[in-house]
Structures are given as structure tokens and as C-alpha cells.
């Protein structure tokens, strides 16, 4: 399918972004005590959401303010430095264009397109706010949900809690299924549902995407809520990546 090929191309562009997630070389949580890190210059500390450095890129003391749950990057030699608010804490993630993970990436690994995994769902409305855990622990993440998307797959009735998007014609689903930890990444993947003219929703699981945590230890990705842990195997979309970026370097991974 041409659209499937285009999706694969877009995913490859995402992962090969020279300052994208595969360029992250560490994750560093700040405290009020100055710290130094091997892959970013200067010493760093934070008081609430005010971030301070001394010696970053050869400069004296500098100061930034981060909005709650926001992030931004600042230029540095060889890439950019991400400064982010996560779970009420401040995290630094250096992004280097010569990251070993970027060098190791050879393209996304995906299942062949299977039209059986393109389903039509109905939304059973139930407005609520849903707490979601993170690959870095409980960071107080929550999303607004309009209800559950209900459909049939392989003869089974499936219900998935969906989350709102800025675009009202789209809903976001984070799910774990029977393939998770086997052929697909263990903590789950995500897919976008699109609203049809008849009010129902198209979900194409062939476009199921991995989160950065599938490739790296240096991410704080949301995990599928327990209510979205499915028994049915959805062997469509992105598979488990062939490598993982850790503090010890890039290592093979698979199940």
C-alpha cells in the first residue's frame, strides 16, 4: 500500500532526525545540588522549575525557567540540550548528532501490511481523566478520555480507552497486546484513530508506532494503561527494535 510505504518513510525520518530521540545520550535528573555530567558541559542544578548552569559551553552562570510539563532545547557543541519538566522534576537530555544509536539505526522493523488489522470502531462515551504510568516510573501523567473505542478483531470484542487530541477528528490509543514482549515492544505501542463521516472511527493497527522507550533507556514514555492490555495479538505495525541504547552503549535486543 502506498500510504503504508509513506508511513514507514515518515517513521524512518522521525528516528533519523539528527537531534531526535535516537540522538539522546543520557537522562539526568537535577536537584538543588550542583551536578556535572559526562556528555554536557558545566555544572547544573534546579530550584523548582528554575534551572541553573555554570560553565555550560564555556559561559558563566546561566538561568532558564521551564513551564510545568514543557520542554525546550538550547544549542550546544555537537547537538542540542533538552531541558524538560517531567513529574515535577527537571531533566537534562543531551542530544548529540553523533550518537551511537543514530549510527545503529537502519530503518524501522515492521510487519507486512495486513488489511485484517484495519478496523472500524464505535466510541462508547465516558468522559474521564485517566492516569498513565511512565517508563521512568510514576510521573503524574494523565490524559483526558472521551470513552472507549469498541470493535471486533479475530472474532473477539475489543475495547480500548482512547485519549483526546488537539484535532477533534482524531483519538489516541496506547495499547499492549498479546504480541507485546514477544514480537513487539513489551510496554506497548500507540496508534491514532480517525473519525469517519458516519461518526464511527477507523483504526489501522498497521500504523502502530513504537515509543522512544523501545529504543533507549533515556526516555520517559507513557505506558499502556492496564485497561488497554489486550489478550489478542496485534502483529501489525512496528516490531521490537533490533537494538537498545543503554548506559553501557548500544546493545542487541529481542524476544
Task: State the gist of this model.
With 255 residues, the protein is mainly beta. The protein contains 2 helices and 16 strands. The model has no long low-confidence stretch (mean pLDDT 95).
Low-confidence parts, pLDDT < 50 over ≥5 residues?
A: none
Radius of gyration based on Cα positions: 20 Å
Count of alpha/pi helices: 2
**Total discrete domains:** 2
The profile of the biggest β sheet is: 6 strands, antiparallel, barrel
Helix coverage percent of residues? Answer: under 10%
How many E-type strands? 16
Output mean pLDDT.
Answer: 95
Span of the ends, CA to CA:
28 Å
One letter per element, helices H and strands E, the order comes to: HEEEEEEEEHEEEEEEEE
Estimated share of beta-strand residues: 35-45%
Question: Can you list the strand order of the major beta sheet?
Answer: 9-10-11-12-13-14
Gross geometry: globular
Q: Would you tell me the structural class of the helices and strands? A: mainly beta
Amino acid at each position: 500500500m502506498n500510504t503504508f510505504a509513506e508511513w514507514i518513510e515518515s517513521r524512518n525520518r522521525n528516528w533519523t532526525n539528527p537531534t531526535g530521540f535516537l540522538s539522546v545520550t543520557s537522562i539526568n535528573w537535577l536537584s538543588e545540588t550542583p551536578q556535572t555530567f559526562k556528555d554536557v558541559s558545566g555544572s547544573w542544578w534546579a530550584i523548582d522549575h528554575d534551572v541553573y548552569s555554570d560553565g555550560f559551553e564555556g559561559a558563566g552562570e546561566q538561568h532558564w525557567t521551564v513551564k510545568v510539563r514543557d520542554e525546550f532545547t538550547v544549542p550546544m557543541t555537537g547537538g542540542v540540550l533538552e531541558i524538560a519538566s517531567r513529574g515535577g522534576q527537571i531533566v537534562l537530555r543531551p542530544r548529540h548528532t553523533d550518537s551511537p544509536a543514530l549510527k545503529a539505526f537502519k530503518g524501522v522493523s515492521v510487519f507486512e501490511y495486513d488489511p485484517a488489522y484495519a478496523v472500524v470502531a464505535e466510541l462508547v462515551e465516558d468522559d474521564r481523566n485517566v492516569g498513565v504510568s511512565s517508563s521512568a516510573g510514576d510521573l503524574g501523567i494523565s490524559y483526558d478520555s472521551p470513552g472507549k473505542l469498541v470493535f471486533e478483531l479475530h472474532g473477539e470484542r475489543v475495547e480500548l480507552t482512547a485519549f483526546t487530541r488537539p484535532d477533534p477528528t482524531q483519538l489516541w490509543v496506547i495499547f499492549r497486546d498479546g504480541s507485546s514482549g514477544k514480537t513487539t515492544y513489551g510496554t506497548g505501542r500507540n496508534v491514532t484513530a480517525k473519525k469517519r463521516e458516519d461518526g464511527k472511527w477507523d483504526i489501522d493497527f498497521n500504523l502502530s508506532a513504537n515509543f522512544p522507550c523501545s529504543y533507549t533507556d533515556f526516555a520517559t514514555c507513557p505506558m499502556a494503561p492496564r485497561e488497554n492490555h489486550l489478550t489478542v495479538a496485534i502483529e501489525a505495525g512496528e516490531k521490537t527494535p533490533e537494538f537498545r541504547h543503554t548506559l553501557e552503549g548500544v546493545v542487541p535486543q529481542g524476544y
